[in-house]
Design goal:
Order of helices and strands of chain A: HHHHHHEEEHHHHEHHHH
Helix content of chain A: over 70%
Distance between the termini of chain A: 16 Å
Number of strands of chain A: 4
CATH class of chain C: Mainly Alpha
Shape of chain A: globular
Number of helices of chain C: 11
Distance between the termini of chain C: 50 Å
Strand content of chain C: under 5%
Strand content of chain A: under 5%
Strand order of the largest sheet of chain C: 1-2
Number of helices of chain A: 14
CATH architecture of chain C: Orthogonal Bundle
Oligomer: heterotrimer
Largest interface: A-B, 67 and 60 residues
Largest sheet of chain C: 2 strands, antiparallel
Chains: A mainly alpha (331), B alpha/beta (420), C mainly alpha (290)
Radius of gyration of chain A: 21 Å
Chain lengths: 331, 420, 290
C-alpha cells in the first residue's frame, strides 16, 4: 500500500523531530525558571558533552581510539585565554580562534599519529598528551602551571544587546546554543556521505580502502574535526570556569570522555550526551554522600558494560525494539 | 524512521532531561527550620585525590570547630551548619563543587581548598557570588594578583614562610646553600623566594635543582651538588620528599637539610628515622604538642581528636596535618568573631563583614590556638608566628619560635580600594 | 675531566639499568596480558599499588620482609584469576572495552585502598640500609638487590615461557587462539593463569619497589604510563621488546640528565619514542602483521 507508507513517511518525519523539540522546550523552560544550581549543572553537562561528542566522532564513528584528547581540550582552553588577553576582541571570536588553532595543531600532530593503528595509535596519543602536559606544567610564565590562570570575560555589546556570561540565564542560553550547534553540525557530518565513509572505516578499514577511499584523508578529517570540537569545549569550559590550568592537559581528563561515551553509547550522538549527564550527576551527588564514591561508579560502569557493550542507549534501543516487535504480534 | 524510533527517542531525550532535573531537585535537602535560621559554612576540600591526607584532617577539624561553636551557643545565637564537598584534588571538579556549595547548598561562607590551583580558580567565583572565601592554598598569588576583596587567607603563604625562616637558616644553619625543589609552581616559588631572601641576608645559593614530580630516583640530580655546599633547602612533598631525603642521606649524610613542613605533613617519620635525622623543618604549628604546649593548643587537639604526637586518637595509623589544619579551625572562629563584631545577618551584610575582617587582630585563645595573628587590610593575608623543628632520634623537637615580625613583607596589592 | 665524565656516565648507566629492570617487570605483565587477551589493562598500575600497600601492611604487622614479597603477589594473583574469569572475559579481544572495564576496576581498587589505608603517604623501612661505593658515589644496596631480583624473575619468566609446556601453550595461544584451541590447549585456563601471572608480576614489582618508592593510593598512575609506553614501543606482546625499551628509556633519561634538565631529558626520550613509532609503527620488536 504505497499510500499508507507515504502517509507514514510524512507522519514519521513530523514526529521524528518531536522528541527533540520536547527536550529543547524542557531545556529552555529550565533555563527560564529553573533553580540556579540546576542551570549550572546543565551548563556544565552541555560543555562536557561537546568534549564527549568530539571523542565519539573519533571513536564511535571512525574507530580511532584516542586516549589523548585532553591535549586539545587544554590547547583550546589556553588559546582562548591567550587570544582573550592579547587580541582584545570579543570572546565569541576568541572561542572560534581557539577552536581553529586547536584544529590546526590536530592537523599537524595528525600527520604523525594517523598512520598508526590500534594500540600504537593509542600510545602515540598518550605520549603527545604527556608531552603537552609536561610542557604546560613547566612553562609557568605562559600557562600558570598547576596553579593556573584566572581570567575575566568582558561582556560584549551588540547594538543594544549586552551579552555577559556573569548572568546565569544569558550564559545558560549561550552554552545551550553552542552545544545544540555542535550536535546539529555533527549530525550533518555523520549523516553525510563523508560520515558513511568514516563509519565504514570503523567497521572494516581494509574493505573501505579496497573500495578506493583514501582512508588516510578521511581519518585525518575526523581527527581534525575532533580536535576542533575538543578545542571548542576547552575554550567554552574556560569561559565558564573563568580559569585554566595545566591540569586540563592531564591524562585523567583524557580518560573522561572515554567513560562518558562508552557508558552512554558509542557510535550515537545522543549516547555521549546521556553518558556525560549520568556520570557527572552521579559523581556530584554520590561524592556528597559517600567519600568512596568511585567504588560505586566503577561497579556501575562494569554493570553497564556487561549488560550492554553498546552503552545505555544501545541497551534501551534493543529493549524497546523487542517490546514493539512483541506488540505487533506475529507477522 | 517509524513509530518505534519515535518512541525510543521520546523516552531517551525526555528521560535524559528529566533525570538531570530530578537529580537536581533530589539534592535540595529539606531546610531545617530551626528557631533561628542557621549560618551555613561550606568547606571545599580534598577528601580524595593526591591531597587526600589534608582533606581528611581539614574535614575533621571543621566538624570539631562547628560542634564546639554549636555547643557553646552558636554564632550570635544562631546555630551553624557545616557542608563539605570533595574536590578530588582536581580543579575542574573543584570549581564545579564551589558552585554547588554556593548555588545548591546556599552556604554563607566557604573554607577553600588546600590546592592552590583550585583556590585560584575559585577566587573569581567568590567575588561573582559575593561569598567570602577562605582558601588554604599557600601560593603567594592567592592574596596578590589572583585574589580579590572576598578572599581572606588565615594561614600563611610561601613568601611569608620563606621570609620567616630565612634569618634562622642563614644565621644558624649555613651560608652556602643548594636548593632542591619540585619542578612546578609551588617548588619554584619556594626556590625564587629562598634565593631572594637568602641573598638579602648575606648567604649564597650555589645551585638550584628542580626535579620533576614523581621522581623515583634522585641520585642523578643530587650528584650535582657541589662539594663546598653546606646545606640544602628543599621543597618537595610526599613520596618525592621521601625519595629525595633517602637518596640525599646516601650521597651526603652530613649535609644540613632544611625545608618547609609540607614535605612531611601526614607522613609517619618512624621508618625514615635514619634518613631524616638531623633535618630542620619550618612549621606553622608543631606536630608534637610538647613543642608548643599551651593551654589552648592542648584543648584544640582534644576537641579535634589529635593526640600529643599528631596522630588520631583511636587510630594511630592516621597522622593529622597538624601544621595546616589549625587554619580551618581559626578561619571558622574568625568568621564567628567578625560576625559578632559587626552584627552580620545575611550575605547582604558582607561588605560590613569584610571591613570588619580587614585588619582584624586575633589574640591567642581557644579560637586561635596557633597564636596571635592579624589579617592585613590591604591584601587580606594573615601574619603569624612560625616554629622550627629539628629531628632528634627520629622525633620532631621544636627548637625555636619565630616572631610575627619576621614574616611580614610589604603588601603588593590593595583590595580595600576595590568595590564590593 | 674525562674521568669525571666517565664516572658520571658509568653511574648513569648503572642507575638506568636498575630502574629499567624494575619497570620491565611491571611492563612484562602488561604485555603478556595484551598479547594474549587483547586487554589494555589500565588497572595494572593499581594492582602494583595494592601490592605495595599490602607489603607495607605486612611489614608493619609482622616485620617480615620475605613474607611481604610472597603474600601480596599471591593475593593479587588470586584477584587476577577472579577478575579475568568473572569480569573481563566478555570484553576480551575488544581493547576499547577492556580500557573502560579496567578503568572501572582501577577506580574501585583506588577507593578501596583509600578507604582501608587512608590518603597519606606510607613509608617502608629500607631492609638493607647499607650503601656501596661505586663510581665515586655512594650507591644504595637495596636497589642492586631489587634489580637482581627483577633480573632473576625475568630469567624465571623466560624459562617458563620457552622451556615449559605451559609456556608453549601461552605462546601458541598468543599466535592464534583458534588453532590453539583446536589443538587441545585449554585456552580459557591459559588466559586466566596468564592474567593472574601478570597481576602477580605487577604486585611483586610493587612489593620490591615499596622500600624505594613511597606508597600512596595514587602511585599506580606514574608507573602505568611509563609501562605502557615501554610495552607499545617495544612491540606489543614482545617480551624482549618490553625489556629492551624499558632499559633504553631509563638509561637514556639518566644519561641525558647529566647535561639536560630533567624535563628536557624526559621530553627528549618521549620524542624518541614518537620517532620510533612513526618510523616503525609496530614497535621495535613488533610483528609486522596485525
Amino acid at each position: 500500500m504505497p499510500q499508507s507508507s507515504n502517509e507514514g513517511f510524512f507522519f514519521n518525519r513530523k514526529i521524528r523531530v518531536l522528541p527533540y523539540l520536547f527536550t529543547l522546550a524542557l531545556l529552555v523552560f529550565l533555563g527560564v525558571i529553573g533553580p540556579i544550581h540546576i542551570k549550572t549543572l546543565i551548563m556544565e553537562i552541555m560543555i562536557w558533552s561537546i568534549y564527549a561528542l568530539a571523542f565519539d566522532l573519533l571513536f564511535g564513528y571512525t574507530g580511532l581510539f584516542s586516549y589523548g584528547q585532553a591535549l586539545y581540550f587544554g590547547v583550546g582552553a589556553y588559546s582562548f585565554v591567550f587570544s582573550l588577553r592579547h587580541l582584545s576582541m570579543n570572546f565569541i571570536i576568541c572561542l572560534f580562534a581557539a577552536s581553529f588553532l586547536t584544529s590546526v595543531l590536530a592537523a599537524l600532530l595528525g600527520l604523525l599519529i594517523i598512520k598508526t593503528k590500534g594500540a600504537y595509535f593509542v600510545i602515540l596519543t598518550i605520549i603527545f598528551n604527556v608531552i603537552f602536559y609536561l610542557l604546560a606544567m613547566d612553562l609557568t610564565w605562559l600557562t600558570g602551571g598547576e596553579d593556573g590562570i584566572s581570567i575575566e570575560i568582558p561582556p560584549i555589546t551588540i547594538g543594544k544587546l549586552c551579552l555577559s556570561l556573569n548572568n546565569p540565564t544569558t550564559s545558560y542560553f549561550f552554552y545551550l546554543f553552542f552545544s545544540l550547534a555542535t550536535l546539529v553540525f555533527l549530525k550533518r557530518i555523520v549523516d553525510s556521505p563523508v560520515g558513511r565513509v568514516l563509519f565504514s572505516i570503523k567497521v572494516n578499514e581494509e574493505r573501505a580502502e579496497y573500495i578506493g577511499y583514501n582512508i588516510y584523508a578521511y581519518k585525518m578529517f575526523s581527527y581534525v574535526m575532533s580536535g576542533f570540537f575538543c578545542g571548542l569545549s576547552g575554550a567554552l569550559y574556560t569561559s565558564w570556569a573563568r580559569y585554566a590550568s595545566a591540569s586540563y592537559f592531564s591524562i585523567i581528563i583524557s580518560g573522561e570522555p572515554i567513560v562518558w561515551s562508552l557508558i552512554g553509547g558509542p557510535g550515537t550522538l545522543i549516547g555521549p550526551v546521556i553518558g556525560t549527564a549520568i556520570i557527572i550527576v552521579l559523581l556530584d551527588y554520590l561524592s556528597f554522600y559517600w567519600k568512596y564514591y568511585l567504588i560505586l561508579i566503577g561497579t556501575l560502569m562494569l554493570v553497564v558494560l556487561r549488560f550492554s557493550p553498546r552503552g545505555i542507549v544501545g541497551f534501551l534501543k534493543e529493549r524497546i525494539e523487542v517490546k514493539l516487535d512483541d506488540c505487533r504480534g506475529p507477522p | 524512521m517509524n513509530r518505534r524510533s519515535f518512541l525510543k527517542q521520546v523516552i531517551f531525550l525526555g528521560a535524559a532531561g528529566f533525570l538531570t532535573y530530578l537529580s537536581g531537585c533530589l539534592g535540595q535537602k529539606p531546610s531545617l527550620e530551626l528557631q533561628e535560621k542557621p549560618i551555613r559554612i561550606g568547606q571545599l576540600t580534598e577528601l580524595t585525590g593526591g591531597l587526600a591526607v589534608y582533606g581528611y584532617s581539614n574535614d575533621a577539624t571543621a566538624k570539631a570547630a562547628v560542634n564546639l561553636i554549636n555547643e557553646t551557643g552558636g554564632i550570635a545565637g544562631r546555630p551553624v551548619q557545616y557542608v563539605v564537598e570533595d574536590t578530588a584534588t582536581n580543579p575542574t571538579v573543584g570549581i564545579r563543587k564551589m558552585r554547588r556549595l554556593i548555588e545548591l547548598h546556599k552556604v554563607d561562607f566557604i573554607i577553600g581548598s588546600q590546592h592552590s590551583g583550585i583556590a585560584i580558580g575559585c577566587n573569581p567565583l567568590a567575588k561573582e557570588f559575593k561569598t567570602l572565601h577562605f582558601p588554604l592554598g599557600e601560593a603567594t598569588s592567592i592574596t596578590e594578583k589572583d585574589g580579590n576583596r572576598y578572599v581572606f587567607r588565615i594561614n600563611n603563604n610561601v613568601r611569608e614562610q620563606v621570609k620567616a625562616g630565612i634569618k634562622f637558616a642563614v644565621e644558624e644553619l649555613a651560608k652556602k646553600w643548594v636548593t632542591v625543589v619540585l619542578d612546578y609552581s609551588w617548588g619554584w616559588s619556594n626556590e625564587e623566594e629562598f634565593k631572594k631572601y637568602a641573598e638579602q641576608a648575606g648567604a649564597k645559593v650555589l645551585l638550584s635543582i628542580r626535579t620533576p614530580i614523581g621522581t623515583k630516583d634522585y641520585l642523578p640530580y643530587l650528584s650535582k651538588i657541589p662539594e663546598e655546599a653546606e646545606a640544602v633547602f628543599f621543597a618537595n612533598w610526599f613520596s618525592d620528599f621521601i625519595n629525595f631525603i633517602r637518596d640525599l642521606h646516601t650521597l651526603r649524610p652530613d649535609i644540613i637539610k632544611y625545608g618547609p613542613v609540607c614535605c612531611i605533613e601526614g607522613v609517619n617519620l618512624e621508618p625514615l628515622a635514619d634518613q631524616v635525622e638531623d633535618a630542620w623543618f619550618l612549621t606553622w604549628l608543631p606536630r608534637n604538642l610538647e613543642g608548643y604546649d599551651t593551654e589552648f593548643h592542648r584543648m584544640f587537639r582534644e576537641k579535634v581528636g589529635i593526640d600529643e604526637e599528631g596522630r588520631e586518637i583511636g587510630d594511630p595509623s592516621k597522622i593529622y596535618t597538624v601544621s595546616h589544619c589549625w587554619a580551618v579551625w581559626e578561619a571558622i572562629f574568625a568568621i564567628k568573631e567578625a560576625i559578632e563584631q559587626c552584627g552580620w545577618e545575611s550575605k547582604e551584610d558582607n561588605p560590613e563583614l569584610i571591613q570588619a575582617l580587614e585588619g582584624m587582630e586575633f589574640k591567642e585563645s581557644l579560637s586561635h590556638p596557633q597564636g596571635d595573628k592579624f589579617l592585613r587590610a590591604e591584601d587580606h593575608q594573615a601574619f603569624m608566628q612560625h616554629f622550627v623543628d629539628h629531628v632528634e632520634n627520629g622525633k620532631l623537637v621544636t627548637k625555636k619560635i619565630i616572631s610575627i615580625d619576621e614574616s611580614i613583607y610589604p603588601a603588593q596589592v590593595d583590595y580595600t580600594k576595590e568595590g564590593f | 675531566m674525562v674521568e669525571m665524565f666517565l664516572s658520571k656516565l658509568a653511574f648513569s648507566l648503572l642507575n638506568g639499568a636498575v630502574w629499567g629492570l624494575i619497570v620491565s617487570l611491571i611492563a612484562l605483565g602488561l604485555t603478556l596480558i595484551f598479547g594474549l587477551m587483547g586487554i589494555i589493562n589500565i588497572a595494572h598500575g593499581d594492582l602494583y599499588m595494592f601490592g605495595a600497600f599490602l607489603s607495607w601492611y605486612i611489614i608493619n604487622y609482622t616485620g617480615n620482609y620475605w613474607l611481604s614479597y610472597l603474600v601480596p603477589p599471591l593475593l593479587i594473583g588470586l584477584l587476577g584469576l577472579f577478575l579475568e574469569k568473572e569480569v573481563l572475559r566478555p570484553f576480551e579481544d575488544r581493547p576499547e572495552y577492556t580500557v573502560i572495564a579496567t578503568i572501572a576496576i582501577g577506580y574501585i581498587l583506588q577507593h578501596i585502598a583509600l578507604a582501608i589505608f587512608g590518603g597519606s603517604t606510607q613509608v617502608v623501612r629500607n631492609p638493607v640500609p647499607a650503601s656501596l661505593h661505586l663510581f665515586g658515589i655512594e650507591y644504595p644496596v637495596y636497589r642492586l638487590f631489587a634489580a637482581s631480583a627483577s633480573l632473576l624473575l625475568l630469567t624465571v619468566l623466560w624459562l617458563i615461557l620457552y622451556r615449559t609446556t605451559f609456556g608453549l601453550w601461552i605462546r601458541a595461544t598468543m599466535q592464534d587462539k583458534e588453532i590453539a584451541e583446536t589443538s587441545g590447549i585449554p585456552v580459557n585456563r591459559v588466559c586466566m593463569v596468564t592474567f593472574a601471572l601478570g597481576c602477580f608480576l605487577s604486585a611483586l614489582g610493587g612489593s620490591l619497589a615499596a622500600p624505594i618508592v613511597q606508597i600512596s593510593y595514587l602511585m599506580g598512575f606514574d608507573v602505568l604510563v611509563l609501562a605502557f609506553i615501554v610495552v607499545v614501543v617495544g612491540g606489543l606482546g614482545s617480551l624482549k621488546g618490553a625489556l629492551v625499551t624499558s632499559l633504553l628509556i631509563s638509561i637514556l633519561e639518566n644519561v641525558l640528565s647529566i647535561y639536560l634538565t630533567p624535563l628536557e631529558s624526559r621530553l627528549f626520550s618521549l620524542a624518541l619514542m614518537v620517532a620510533i613509532l612513526v618510523k616503525k609503527p609496530t614497535g621495535i620488536f613488533g610483528r609486522q602483521t596485525e
